[in-house]
Each structure stands twice: as C-alpha cells, then as structure tokens.
Amino acid sequence: MSSITADHIPASHGHEDHDHAHAMPHGWRRWLFATNHKDIGTMYLIFSFCMLLEGGTLALLLRTELFDPGLQFFQPQLFNQFTSMHGLIMIFGAIMPAFVGFGNWMIPLQIGASDMAFARMNNFSFWLLPVAATLMTISFFVPGGANAAGWTMYAPLSLQMGPGMDFTIFAVHIMGASSIMGAINIIVTILNLRAPGMTLMKMPLFCWTWLITAYLLLAVMPVLAAAVTMILTDRHFGTTFFNAAGGGDPVLFQHVFWFFGHPEVYIMILPAFGIISEVIPAFARKPLFGYASMVYATASIAILSFLVWAHHMFTTGMPVTAQLYFMYATMLISIPTGVKVFNWTATMWRGSMTFETPMLFAIGFIFVFVIGGFTGLILALAPIDIDLQDTYYVVAHFHYVMVAGSLFAMFAGVYYWIPKWTGRMYDEKLGKLHFWSSMLSFNLAFFPMHFLGLAGMPRRYADYPAQFTDFHQIATIGAFWFGLSQLILLYVVLKAWSGRGEAAPARPWEGATALEWTVPSPAPFHTFVNPPHVKWNADGVAVTE
C-alpha cells in the first residue's frame, strides 16, 4: 500500500494558515472556554475515565461485601445505593461520555471538517457533565443517602427514597440535555460539513455508527426525561402517575423507562461497532467486508431497538400474545448483529493479520461480545427469562455486552488512535499486558455469575446462602484484578501524553486507510482549515488534494 506522510499534506491542513483561524489558546482558558473539537474530545475522555474509576470503586465495594455470606461491611440500604449509583455512573458518566469523546476527536478528522458544527454548544454540552456528576456523587451524603432503587429507578421504590433521589433525577436531566446537544452537533456535522468527495457511503463506519446513534439519542432522551419528571411530580407535586393508591400504575414506569432503556443499550454499543469496524480492516490489511451491509445492519438494529422494550418485563403479567411478540422481535435483532460479526470475521479471513494491541482488543471484543449476545438470546426466550429474571445471569449477560462490549472496543480505539492524539506510539508490551490482564480477569469476574444465576442467586442482594460462596469469591477476585488492570491503561496513556515513547508517523498502521491518517501526528490544533478534496487511490487509501 502506498504510504502517506506529512510531506504530502497541503499547508491548509496544519496550523500555519491562520486566515480563517485564531491561534491556539493557552492555560486554563484553553480548557474552560474550549471550542476546538480535539480539546473537547480530550476533556470528555478524561471525565469518562474519572467516572470509570468512581463507578469501578463502587463495584469493588459491592464485591467486597459479597466475598462472604452474611453482612460484613455495609447494611442492605447502603449496598443498594452502591448498586444503583454504580450502574448510573457507569452508563451516564463513563460509557456514553467516552464515546462522545471519541466522536468529537475523530468525526471531523474522518470527514475532512475543520471542527464540529456548533463549537460553543459543544463546550456547553461538556461542562454540563461535571455538574451532573457532582450532583450524583454528593447524593450519598444527603439525609437518607443516594438513590437505592436500582439504576432503573423503578417506582414505587423511587417514590419512597429521600432527597438523594431528587439529586439523581436532576443529574439524569442534565446529562440528558448534554446528550441531546451532542447528538444534534454530530448529526449536523456529518450531514453538512463533509469534505468534497466524502460521500455518505464513503464515510468510515465509525461516522455511520455515530450518526445512527445520534438519531437514537434524539429519539429516546426526551422519553427518559419524561419518566424521571413523572417520578419527580409524584414525589413532590401530588400526581399519581405511578402510585397505585391514587389510580396510577407502577408498571407504566417500566414501559416508559424501557422504551428509553433498550435503545440506550444500542446507544452504548453502536459506536463500539464503529471502532471495531475501523480497527479490524487496518490490522487485517483488507477493506471491510460488506461495507453497505454493515451500514444497513446498523440502521436495522437502531429501528428494531424501539420494538423490543418489554422483553425486560416478561414477569410483569403481560398477556401471552405480548410475550410472544416481544420474544420474536428480540430474536430478530440478532440477525443484523450476526451480519456484523460475520463481516468482521470475513474481513479477517485470509488477511495479512498482525496482532498489535488494538487488534487484540478487537478480537477479544468479538469473542466476549458474542458470548453476551448468546446469553441475550437465551434471556429473550420468555419461558426461560421468567426463571432467570433478576438473577445474576442477567448481571453476567449485561456486563458481557457492556464491559466486554463497549469498554473493550474503547480500549481498542484508544490504542488505535493514541498515536494521532499524542504524536507518540504507546508502549506495546504494556498494551499487551493490559489486554491479557483485562481479558482473563474480566472472564474470571463475570463468567461464574452465569452459574450463580442458573442456581437462583438474585441480583442486588447484600447477603446470600452459603452454597453460593465459592462463585462469589472467584468473581470478587476477578473484579479486583480487572479494576487494577485499568491502571496499566492509565500509565500507558499518560506516558504517551507526556511525550515519552517513539514519535508516531502520520500513518503508524500500514493497513489504515481513512482520512485521519493523512494529517500529521499529533493532529494539529487547526486541521482542514480549507476543506480537502478527498479521493481514494488504487489501494483504497484516502488521499487529499
């Protein structure tokens, strides 16, 4: 394949051309008033890692309590607060903002845009997040403690909590507003700011998955806002939406919540699919197999995600016909997901593969995500789900999809793009240590939970009968190992960010073909000041003129 170096780049790509751009700000103003998509992307990624550490600490507190039967450290109410807030912080504080960080950094570089469409709104949507995170964190210290009704905030429990529940409601509102603004920004950027030659069906898959995710966010975030607003008015203003004594229906909350909640699961996994679809072709040194079918499969998953919400509710007493509908609709969603897995596998088939850290995480992602997908299919079967509802089997399934899915894909993305972000190559030995340590410890922590669930261990319980002890102890050891493994990632990133390590060329991966690899490493503060004209050479590599 022909190599692209910084020598081939027109001056308009760098920061020498200031006709249309102001100089790079310095000091605290650069971050507080940031409008540059790279700076805002960096802030999103730093914020999400801080939230990952907070949510992870709560998870390790849970596992510490569960190491032995009996109540060792925490009363059940505090244990339930840890459970509930762990889920909320990981979903709204860690996974979603991390993907927005990737989107901010990479989408303008991949489509040849100078920045995001609404730069100041981009800044505002980020700074809402630390406010919401602060509200969530201090809710532990108000009378009655934090939300203990599960991350799903089910009524009637959420109607009975103390003021910590209100803190959570306001935090969810603020994070939802941030997500809506971010989604609008991504849609307008992708549809309006693509460089000449960058047609929609030539865009990198990561841009496609984010475009579809952004539409999902716009559709379902207002639904979540409606659900938590109804909880708020039930709690303080005398309404009875979910209060059976006043003619309301607690199950209505589940319907409204899961109409948001199931598309939300795909909001957290579609950008991961996009990252994997960038990494695998680069290290297989082949174009992505079935590009158009990947785009259509992503759109199909998004549409179907609106039609399956009540598979979370098989035990609420719905009629058998409804159970059958939601069971079959849920099984249908496995088809476009299977198309993706097939296409990734076909891309690797007979490719000239090398196994640098991004590729290891991408292959690891496919392995563990498929396990999570199969357990999801099992839970989609109504008769089986009625038995496994609210057991550790569900916890295992969810974490195989979210941790091994979203998180492993993010790790692949970090190692793949960090040369472009920092201008330095990461430490390959430490990267591989991080992969193997994460992969082994993750499976040690979560695979035993399938057996706990099959044996009838309910989730969200602080105590349990002695026969579950062995699996809980294995899971706890795996969880601590997994948590500590992430400090390797922190060290690797800080090492590259501080300028240590070998300098990265413009295109450090031989098989990388997208537009972001035509700009120098690190990407200059102002990229594509004048829109490039994008073409593809005989090897399928994006070139600009």
The helix content, as a percent range, equals 55-70%
- Low-pLDDT segments: 1-21
What characteristic shape results from the CA principal axes? globular
Question: What fold name stands as the CATH topology?
Answer: Cytochrome C Oxidase, Chain A
Q: What's the domain count? A: 1
Descriptive report:
The structure is a single chain. The protein has 545 residues and is mainly α. The chain has a single domain (6-544), classed as Cytochrome c oxidase-like, subunit I domain (Cytochrome C Oxidase, Chain A, Up-down Bundle), CATH 1.20.210.10. Helix content is 64%, strand content 1%. It has helices at 28-32, 37-65, 76-111, 119-138, 157-160, 164-192, 205-236, 250-267, 270-284, 291-304, 320-332, 334-348, 357-380, 382-388, 392-422, 428-454, 469-497; strands at residues 534-536, 542-544. Strands 1-2 form a two-stranded antiparallel sheet. A hairpin with a 5-residue loop joins strand 1 and strand 2. Helix 3 (76-111) packs parallel to helix 6 (164-192) and helix 4 packs antiparallel against helix 6. It starts with 27 loop residues before the first helix and ends with a strand.
List the helices and strands and how they pair.
Elements (H helix, E strand, L loop, with lengths): L27 H5 L4 H29 L10 H36 L7 H20 L18 H4 L3 H29 L12 H32 L13 H18 L2 H15 L6 H14 L15 H13 L1 H15 L8 H24 L1 H7 L3 H31 L5 H27 L14 H29 L36 E3 L5 E3 L1
Antiparallel strand pairs: 1-2
List keywords for this structure.
545 residues; 17 helices; Cytochrome C Oxidase, Chain A; mainly alpha; two-stranded antiparallel ribbon; 2 strands
